[in-house]
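Weekly modeling sync, notes
Attendees: S.R. (lead), two postdocs, one rotation student

Agenda item 3: backlog of single-chain predictions. S.R. asked that every request posted to the team notebook include the full sequence so nobody has to chase files. The rotation student volunteered to paste the first one in as an example of the format we agreed on. Action items at the bottom.

Example entry:
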Amino acid sequence: MAKMRLAVGSVDVVIREENVGSASNRICYPGISSCVTVTGVGPSGMVGCHITFATEPDLVSQMFQAMRTGGGTSCVHFYVIGKIADFKRSRTYSSFNTRKKMGQAIKDVICETAVVRFCDSEAYGKDIHIMVQKNLMNADFSWVATAGNVVAGDLYPAFAGAAISPNDFVAR
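Predicted structure, as returned to the notebook:
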């Protein structure tokens, strides 16, 4: 099991596998191939985490607790984006392997009144980066292929991605 790492909150942040972070403007989740990302959007910013199919349940709980204490209780919307179908098939642990269980865990631990929406990124390609930009009380999402678009360390990338349509999100 990897130890959870907190991506220091700032204007822009990069959140890698099994990491948690907060940002007031933008979040980048690099290398989404069989993972899911969870992003909470509230009045003063965003909180997020990057979960792999092998992330242990205790670590998911720790990540959600960190999101809660990092501002997640004020988040109105939560978005789960990633290779959801692959994630569900590959998930080693049954406590977080369906959309219903994912949504309930977010509500149970982080914010019980939040609306949770899901977007399966399979149509965007096998290995992508997901970017989130705060937009008032909501967020805009985009993606870009990892090939030729390197995310170096914790530096927010300079490249732009293709927009993810709000119609690609489903509330469950």
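Discussion: group reviewed the output briefly. Helices lie at 57-69, 84-90, 99-109.
Action items: rotation student to repeat for the remaining queue; S.R. to check formatting next week.
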